[in-house]
Every structure is written in C-alpha cells, then in structure tokens.
C-alpha cells in the first residue's frame, strides 16, 4: 500500500478519509494501525540537533507519531488548516476560547450553550477580565447589533445543547467577520460529517471527541480544528499551556474515527425512527429534533446540514416529578447517565430554564433528553412504550 498524501486525501470521499487519513503502514513494518508511543523524552543524536530542535519530534508533549496520525486524519475530515487534541471536550472549549481572547475582550456566547461552557465563561473567563454576553440562539445576522468595539469572538452551538435550536451559522459568521471577530462553533452533535463548519464560515470548530469520535464511552477527548486565519494562535496557545492528550486515549479516538461514518448513519436512522414514534404519542407534547419537518429549526437544518445524529429531546405532557421518575427509572435499555455518543442508549431529565438569560425557555412540561444508541429500534421503542405507560399511570 502506497503512502496516502494530503493531495490524495483531498480527492477522496469523506468515508475514505476516515479510513485512510493519518495512516502509513510502510513506515510501521506493514501494520495497519499506527503504534501507540508512550514517551516524554526524545533523544537527539548531537548537541546541535538537541539545541537546534532539528528533529521532527523533540518532546512527547509537543507531538508523537501517534498524535500526528490522528491530527492529520481529523484535519482531512474537517477541511482544516490544522487540528489540536485535548484531554476532554470542555478543555477543547476553553482552549479554543482562550486562544482568541485576552483581558478586556468581549465574548458573545449563545444562550443555548452546553452548561459547563457557560460555567467556564462565568467562573473562569470573568476572572481574567473577559466579559461574556449571552444572545438568543435564533438571532441570526441581527447579532451585528450586539457587537462592540472589543468583541473578539462569537461562540455558537448548533443545535443547542438540550434544547436543539439550530443557528444560522453563515449569517452570524458574516456579521462577526465584518467586525473582525473570531467565530467558534461546538460541532459535537453533527460532527464534520454532517456539518461542514469551516465551509460555513467557522474559524475554530470544537468537538467533544468523547462522544462520536471515540464512540464507545471509554475515553475522554476533545478536538479543535482551525481555519488558516486562526491556526497559528491556536497552535501556539495549545503548546504554551502544556496541553496534550494521553497516547492511549488518542489511540481509542483513532480507532473510533475509522468507524464513525457507519455508526453515525445508524444513529441517524434509529434516532429518527424513535423520534417519529414519540411524536405520535399522546404523552409527548413535542419532540425537539431539527430533522423533523415540524421543528422550528428544520429549514436551517435542511439548508446547512447533511445528516442528524442520535441525540434529541422531548417535552412530556404536564406531570409531577414522580411520573417522570416512573418513566425513566424502569427503563431497561436506556441508561441514566451523562455524556452520549457511545453505542448505548441514554436518557436524562432536564430543565434548561435556570440557565437561560437571553432567551426564554418555557416548554410547558417536563423534558427528557435521549441518545439513541445502536440497539434494535423495535427493542428501544418497546422500552419507551412501557416507560410512557408508567408515566401515564403516575400522572
């Protein structure tokens, strides 16, 4: 097998890029997968090489063949100038933000952001003299009215965490770029397979790789891909702050990446089947899933996205907390746990209203977020049907 060049990768389809990106079997005695390098020290042959840093690798934290392989593969899939790896999704969020913000700067943050992202803005960025203003995720190009002279970054998450609002990324990006601001997007839900972040104007695209990249609920991981304009500052900040992911986690992420395409297509198919079934149930007021035609964000999703993942939410009819507990506690196939993106189905109850400050969240009933895993759809629906019957009896 000949070495795949970057020119080759650019000509391949995305599923081929997932499989061959970062691979060089000829350099690894014919082994298909790159080796896992556990190491800190890299020996130099001479003093001149040591001082002059003439070698490709100089220290484990600054890169190894293992990390480079995944970075190259992800850059090819993302269409990015470069990618850095982080030890968690939240560390990717904070690294991306701090790479483009300084004391005295102003950040515009979507009101629908992941809860720990909001906490990082309020508890961490604030300590460094960075002010955050939250905005309605459906603001679109009108975000120009919130821009200040010191607005240096605009952060999006589409669809929104828990509540699944779809943002008009190109319109927001255009308004931000007109004022010289960097555009960041949490693209974990769609991944670059279903939403091409950089092609839609995003400078820094973030993924909680813990979810669909790793895909097996067995590693914490984060990635940031950068457009050419944002790459030098991101690369410098990532290195200057000593961030690095462990080699075993990188290997697990690489293993997951190879099958992400087929897994995502199955998550999409199963997720839509379950969402449509739930939408017809009398116990469900509405399903929050942008790929459903009745969803408020469906038109934007249809315009900009090429697929949907397995994560969505539902609003139940008004009922006491005990009814929601009866629904969820008796589930056999849906685990009650945080995170998502693995092979297993998950469920959590949530109330987004305490976290919203720029937009109202009044769903009219208790809310549940579901991640649809890789189990048989008929089994998942049967499990949910029994749960909704318990919910009805306890209401």
From TrEMBL:
Transmembrane segments: none annotated. The keyword Lyase applies. GO terms for molecular function: cysteine-S-conjugate beta-lyase activity. It catalyses: L,L-cystathionine + H2O = L-homocysteine + pyruvate + NH4(+); an S-substituted L-cysteine + H2O = a thiol + pyruvate + NH4(+). Gene3D superfamilies: Aspartate Aminotransferase, domain 1 (3.90.1150.10), Type I PLP-dependent aspartate aminotransferase-like (Major domain) (3.40.640.10). Pathway: Amino-acid biosynthesis; L-methionine biosynthesis via de novo pathway; L-homocysteine from L-cystathionine: step 1/1. Belongs to the trans-sulfuration enzymes family. Keywords: Lyase, Pyridoxal phosphate. This is Cystathionine beta-lyase. It comes from the Bacteria. NCBIfam families: cysta_beta_ly_B. Its EC number is 4.4.1.13. Its cofactor is pyridoxal 5'-phosphate. The keyword Heme does not apply.
């Amino acid at each position: 097998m000949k070495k795949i060049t970057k020119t080759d990768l650019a000509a391949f389809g995305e599923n081929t890029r997932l499989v061959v990106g970062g691979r060089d079997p000829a350099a690894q005695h014919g082994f298909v997968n790159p080796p896992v390098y556990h190491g800190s020290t890299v020996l130099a042959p001479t003093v001149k090489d040591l001082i002059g840093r003439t070698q490709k690798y100089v220290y484990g934290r600054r890169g190894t063949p293992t990390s480079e392989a995944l970075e190259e593969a992800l850059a090819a899939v993302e269409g990015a100038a470069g990618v850095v790896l982080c030890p968690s999704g939240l560390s990717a969020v904070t690294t991306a933000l701090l790479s483009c913000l300084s004391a005295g700067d102003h950040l515009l943050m979507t009101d629908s952001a992941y809860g720990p992202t909001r906490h990082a803005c309020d508890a961490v960025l604030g300590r460094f003299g960075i002010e955050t203003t939250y905005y309605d995720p459906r603001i679109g190009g009108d975000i120009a009215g919130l821009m200040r002279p010191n607005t240096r970054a605009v952060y999006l998450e589409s669809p929104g965490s828990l509540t699944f609002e779809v943002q008009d990324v190109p319109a927001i990006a255009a308004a931000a770029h007109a004022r010289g601001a960097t555009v960041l997007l949490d693209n974990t839900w769609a991944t670059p397979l279903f939403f091409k972040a950089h092609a839609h104007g995003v400078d820094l695209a973030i993924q909680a790789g813990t979810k669909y990249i790793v895909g097996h609920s067995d590693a914490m991981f984060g990635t940031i891909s950068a457009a050419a304009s944002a790459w030098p500052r991101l690369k410098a900040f990532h290195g200057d702050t000593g961030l690095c992911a462990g080699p075993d986690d990188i290997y697990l992420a690489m293993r997951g990446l190879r099958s992400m395409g087929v897994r995502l297509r199955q998550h999409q198919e199963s997720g839509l089947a379950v969402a449509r079934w739930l939408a017809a149930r009398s116990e469900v007021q509405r399903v929050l899933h942008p790929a459903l035609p009745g969803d408020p964000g469906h038109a934007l999703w249809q315009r900009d996205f090429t697929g949907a993942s397995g994560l969505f939410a539902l609003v139940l009819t008004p009922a006491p907390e005990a009814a929601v507990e009866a629904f969820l506690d008796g589930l056999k196939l849906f685990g009650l746990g945080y995170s998502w993106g693995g092979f297993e189905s998950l469920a959590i109850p949530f109330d987004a209203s305490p976290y919203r400050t720029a937009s109202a969240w009044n769903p009219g009933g208790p809310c549940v977020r579901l991640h649809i895993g890789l189990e048989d759809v008929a089994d998942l629906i049967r499990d949910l049907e029994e749960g909704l019957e318990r919910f009805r009896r306890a209401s």
